[in-house]
Every structure is written in C-alpha cells, then in structure tokens.
C-alpha cells in the first residue's frame, strides 16, 4: 500500500508540473496518458487490497441520519413539553391554594406576582424559546406564521404585566400566567402533530435494507481462477466483477458475464415469476439469485442502483408542495397580519374612544390599562391553541379507530382528499391479483403402453400422481413455481414422495430432475424434458393454458403438465364495478406483458383502453403526473417497490398491507 501511495503522489506531482506547460497536441496527449495511468494505479490499489475506501456516504446513511434527526426533534419536543407542563402545574398550584383558602406561608409564595414573573421568564428562556424565536424570525422575514401569533401573544401579555408589576401606581393588572399556559398548550398540540407526522413520514431505510452491505469482489476478473474478497457495496466501481452465489441478493446493477440462474425480481418489478439470467442479461441490485452462480460486471458505481433511483423519485414526490399547501401558507401569513391589525385597532379604539362610548368599562382602571389588556386578548385568543391541540388529537383518535378496522390512515387530510378522488390507478400484481404463482390446472397425459408406461396405475396418470411426482422433485428447490407445486400437492392431500439422495439436479431457467422410487422424474420446460428422453408432445398449444407451464415427464414419457398463473383476487371485480358506478375513472398499470395485463383487465372489468402494460417505475410516476395535469385528483393502489414513486406522487396513495415495506412507507392509506 505504501508503494501505491508513493507512486500515486509521484504521478500527481508529475501531472501538476505538466499542467503548467503551454499546451500543444503532444502535451495534451501526455496529460491524457498520465491521467489514465493515475486512474489505473488507483484502480489497481482497489483490486490488490481487501480494504476499500468505505468512507463514502451511502444513501442508506443519509436516510438513517434524517430519520435519526426526526426522532431527536421529537425527543426534544417531548422534553420541552414536560418542562412547560411542570411550570404550568406549579402556576396552577398557587391558584388552587387561593381558591380553597389555604393559609400556609409557602402556598402564598406560589401565588405571588414575583414567583409568577420568574416562571414566565423561565418559560421564555426554556421550553418556549424555539417557538417564540421562530415566530419572530418569520415576522422579520415578512412571512409570519402561527408561531408568530403565539410569540406576539405571549410577549405582549408578559410586557404589559411587567410594566404593571414594576410600576404599581399605574393600577394595571398582571397576568404572568398567560404566557406560561399559552405556551404549554401550544407545545402539547405541536408534540401531538409531530408524532402524527413522524408516523406518516416514510422511513425509506427499510427500502435500502433490502440491499446487501457486502459484495464478493473478484480480484483478477477471471471467472474460472479468480479469488474474491468481501468489500462494502458502496465502494464498488464501474467495471468491477462480483460473484453472486445462490440465495444472495445482487449487490449492484450490472451485466451477467458468466453463469446461468433464475432471479427473483418481484421486489423491484412486482411480477411474481422469476426471470432466467444468462451471459449478457442485465441484473438489478436487491433482486435475489435463486439457484445458480453468477459473475456480474458492475455497470453503476456503488450506491447508484435502480433501488436508489426509486428512492430519489419517492423523495422528489414527497417534497413536492401541493398547490393547496402553498395556499394555506399564504392564508396563514395574511391571517397573522390581520390579527395584528385588529389588535392595533382595538388598542387605538379603547385608548381614544372607549371612555366616551362605554364609560362604565373603565371605572376600575385607566383607559390605557383596559386598551392594553383588550389588545393583548385579541392576540392571545387568535393564537391557534384550539386548532393546534384539538386537530392533532382528533386525527390520532381517528387513525387509531381506523387501525382497529384494518386501515392505517396517515392523517385526517387523507379522508378529506379521498372524498374528491375522481381517478384511481391500480397496479396489477399483488393488488388486483394475489401476487404469487399458484397452480390453476393439472392436465394428465394418457400413456400409450410400451416400455415406459405406468403399469401399476393402469397405464393412466391422474392429476394427483402428477402433482405427487412433481412435488417430490421440487421439494429440493426454492424456485417460486416449485413452491407453488408443493402447496398444490399439500392442498390436494397427494402422496408425499421423496427423491433419492444425490439424484437431484437443477438447471436454472430450464428445470429439475430427480429419481423417485425407481423412476426418473423431470419437471421443467419442453426443451428440458426433451433432453430427458421425451419425443412426443401431445400439448402443442400448452403455452395458451396459463401464464406459465411446467411439463412433467417420467422415464422419458410425458406424464402431463401443470399450469400456473397469478390468481385474481376474489373481490377485484366487485371493487372495480363499485368504483365505476360512482363515476370514478379506473386505470391499470402493469410491468407485466400486454397479454397478461389485458386478460386480468377483461376479468375484473377495466376498459382495455385504460390499461398500460410493460411500464417502468418512472413511467408509472409520469402517468400519475399526466392525470394530475388534467386536473384529476388521483388515487394510486399498489404493493411493490416499483409502485413507491407513483404512490408518493398520487394525491392519495393506497398500499396493500401484504406488499413490500417501501410501498407502505410512502402511502397515505395501508
């Protein structure tokens, strides 16, 4: 490492000298060669050392830090709330002693003006400081907010009370308790609001946790002889070769250079069927390598993945301020100015004209004292105490009731928006369908006799026989179709068969074979069973039977086939019908192929011209945006990571509870 550092320093020094030379074509070429040499030297450093620079800040670290900051703010808010209510309780203690006529000397101290003055000062420099400073800063910047009203109300009542306390001959009343209690109630409302917002905010670290933290970096880029070393995924560079073993999550976006496997991409695409990957195929970080070893060339540097792209789309959608929100901010500013003007007008009226119009009102004091009290009252009463306290409380109660009925509602505004929705966009897989392959049909092939017939079963295969044999083979694999066969066999109470030890063999993307009893059973594609002795195929139209088909052959004879599809939810048609009757436009987006999308749409009752297939995550987001440009209030229903950006952008995002965490994180309703 010291030699590499030394060589790098020498190269950098040489380049610095060269850059001072007047340029001609030869010098430019020289600089280019030096730059390439330096890059090569640094790259070599990466390959030769098992310690890559892990100081790079990853997206995961950024989002974890943001979530940490939110939690820290909530803790600070909780501390301020506790102190503020403790001060409020002490303040109330004095009033209670006065009310019940307690004559203890200590109790009278709690009710003294000086004691309440000190409590007010402590409130201003303690729990109320952030709130008041924020309100005044906003006022000086020309964009007053609700905190401005709280600050003005608290400070004005404190100022008038201070004048009354220090100049008693004026005969004014003191009300130091007002800022203490005002700030206590406002902080309670803000704390409740913060809790609601934290619950609603998406913690996207869950999405990033899908990515592995380490990758197996190949040292010499030789799939046959290379050794590998584990490095942090964030340090991977374009051109690195990584090894992905069966069961691993792929650590980076790249291109398969060697190997063959099936990859589960459902967490990214939402589609349940695994995809076969061979040399030249693209793979995405976060997808699961099921049953073969892959050598992958990294095509995007560490930390830059399809997953992080989706994450940035979500962030962009979440931070986009709605027009209604901008209007609310503007109204809040105007409201603050209006209250300030009204307070000033109240002071002017009662200090100049009040004694003439209502002389009885100033019998107990001066006109100035009454004018100050009433102008302060306007400021204090206009403070959003009731709104700030009651609304978050009502929202928390309402969302809790929703949760008991199986609905997670992110806030009261969600229900408000939902009443106005006039367009609903459904994802297909996992939303209108159940989201995983199931066996829908088993078709048996009648044997024609001969060497390979099944004499003990009267030369005829039954559906139960086919499921039993296929399940015996598939019990050795973790392929989604294999799991579907196992579940179907268990549901049909088929005979439990076991493959002979050491006889199981699997080829990713093709099929599996094993010996059960004395018979060789192969399950897979038509090409796979032909390689295992099947000559005649009595099902030339098999591909049209279902979304996916697995052939089952026994000792070179086709026993039958098993059809799979992503089953449609039982209530999908009823839901679409109910929405359509209400005049709501219903659309369907799917990453699946067109034929599969159209089949589902025709069954559930969605118009075919409102179905879009083979869409990418950013295209779903774009479609939602286009509907919104047509002045539609859009709800999006989805369940996968590929739906996350669209769910975040939609006016109301609805995630199916069984979906991937990222979808539920960004949705308004789960």
Automatic annotation (TrEMBL):
Q: From what organism does this protein derive?
A: Aegilops tauschii subsp. strangulata
Q: GO CC terms for this protein?
A: membrane
Q: What is its main location?
A: membrane
Name of the protein in its database record: P-type ATPase A domain-containing protein
Q: Does the keyword Signal apply?
A: no
Its membrane topology, per UniProt?
Answer: Multi-pass membrane protein
**Which keywords belong to this entry?**
ATP-binding, Membrane, Metal-binding, Nucleotide-binding, Translocase, Transmembrane, Transmembrane helix
Domain called P-type ATPase A: residue spans: 212-315
> CDD domains per the record?
P-type_ATPase_HM (cd02079)
Subcellular location, in the record's words? Answer: Membrane
Q: Which GO terms describe its molecular function?
A: ATP binding; ATP hydrolysis activity; copper ion binding; P-type divalent copper transporter activity
Q: Which PROSITE patterns match?
A: ATPASE_E1_E2 (PS00154)
Q: Which family does it belong to?
A: Belongs to the cation transport ATPase (P-type) (TC 3.A.3) family. Type IB subfamily.
């Amino acid at each position: 490492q010291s030699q590499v550092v030394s060589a790098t320093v020498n190269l950098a020094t040489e380049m610095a000298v060269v850059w001072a030379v007047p340029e001609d074509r030869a010098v430019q070429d020289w600089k280019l060669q030096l730059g390439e040499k330096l890059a090569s030297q640094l790259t070599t450093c990466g390959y030769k050392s098992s310690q890559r620079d892990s100081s790079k800040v990853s997206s995961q670290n950024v989002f974890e830090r943001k979530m940490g900051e939110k939690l820290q703010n909530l803790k600070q808010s909780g501390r301020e709330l506790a102190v503020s209510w403790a001060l409020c309780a002490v303040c109330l203690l004095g009033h209670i002693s006065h009310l019940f006529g307690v004559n203890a000397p200590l109790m009278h101290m709690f009710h003294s003006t000086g004691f309440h003055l000190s409590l007010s000062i402590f409130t201003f420099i303690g729990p109320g400081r952030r709130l008041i400073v924020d309100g005044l800063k906003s006022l000086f910047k020309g964009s007053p907010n609700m905190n401005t009203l709280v600050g003005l109300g608290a400070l004005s009542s404190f100022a008038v009370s201070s004048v009354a306390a220090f100049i008693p001959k004026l005969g004014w009343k003191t009300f130091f308790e007002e800022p203490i209690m005002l700030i206590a109630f406002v902080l309670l409302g803000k704390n409740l609001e913060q809790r609601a917002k934290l619950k609603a905010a998406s913690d996207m670290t869950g999405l990033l946790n899908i990515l592995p933290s380490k990758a197996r970096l190949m040292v010499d880029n030789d799939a046959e002889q290379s050794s590998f070393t584990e490095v942090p995924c964030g340090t991977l560079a374009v051109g690195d070769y990584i090894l992905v073993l069966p069961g691993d999550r792929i650590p980076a976006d790249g291109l398969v250079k060697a190997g063959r496997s099936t990859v589960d991409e459902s967490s990214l695409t939402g589609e349940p069927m695994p995809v076969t990957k061979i040399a030249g195929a693209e793979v995405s970080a976060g997808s699961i390598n099921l049953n073969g070893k892959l050598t992958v060339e990294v095509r995007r540097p560490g930390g830059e993945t399809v997953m992080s792209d989706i994450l940035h789309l979500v962030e962009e959608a979440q931070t986009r301020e709605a027009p209604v929100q901008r209007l609310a901010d503007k109204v809040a500013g105007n409201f603050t100015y209006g209250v300030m003007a009204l307070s000033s007008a109240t002071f002017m009226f009662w200090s100049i004209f009040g004694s003439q119009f209502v002389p009885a009102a100033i019998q107990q004091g001066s006109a100035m004292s009454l004018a100050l009290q009433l102008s302060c009252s306007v400021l204090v009463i206009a403070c959003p105490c009731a709104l700030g306290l009651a609304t978050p409380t009502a929202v928390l109660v309402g969302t809790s009731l929703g949760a008991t009925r199986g609905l997670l509602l992110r806030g009261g505004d969600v229900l408000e928006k939902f009443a106005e929705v006039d367009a609903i966009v459904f994802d297909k897989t996992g939303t209108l369908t159940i989201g995983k392959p199931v066996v829908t049909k088993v078709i048996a092939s009648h044997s024609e006799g001969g060497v390979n017939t099944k004499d003990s079963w009267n030369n005829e295969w039954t559906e139960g026989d086919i499921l039993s044999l296929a399940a015996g083979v598939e019990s050795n694999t973790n392929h989604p179709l294999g799991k579907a066969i196992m579940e179907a066999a268990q549901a049909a109470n088929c005979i439990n068969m076991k493959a002979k030890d050491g006889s199981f063999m699997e080829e990713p993307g093709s099929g599996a074979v094993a010996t059960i009893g004395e018979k060789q059973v192969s399950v897979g594609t038509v090409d796979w069973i032909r390689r295992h002795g099947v000559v005649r195929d009595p099902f030339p139209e098999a591909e049209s039977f279902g979304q996916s088909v697995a052939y089952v052959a026994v000792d070179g004879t086709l026993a039958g086939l098993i059809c799979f599809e992503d089953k449609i939810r039982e209530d999908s048609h009823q839901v679409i019908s109910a929405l359509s009757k209400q005049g709501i436009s219903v659309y369907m987006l799917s990453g699946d192929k067109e034929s599969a999308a159209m089949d589902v749409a025709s069954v559930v009752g969605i118009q075919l011209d409102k179905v879009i297939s083979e869409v990418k995550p950013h295209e779903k987001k774009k479609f939602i945006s286009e509907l919104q440009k047509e002045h539609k209030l859009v709800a999006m229903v989805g369940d996968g990571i590929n739906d996350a950006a669209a769910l975040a952008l939609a006016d109301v995002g609805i995630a199916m509870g069984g979906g991937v965490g990222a979808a539920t994180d960004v949705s308004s309703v789960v």
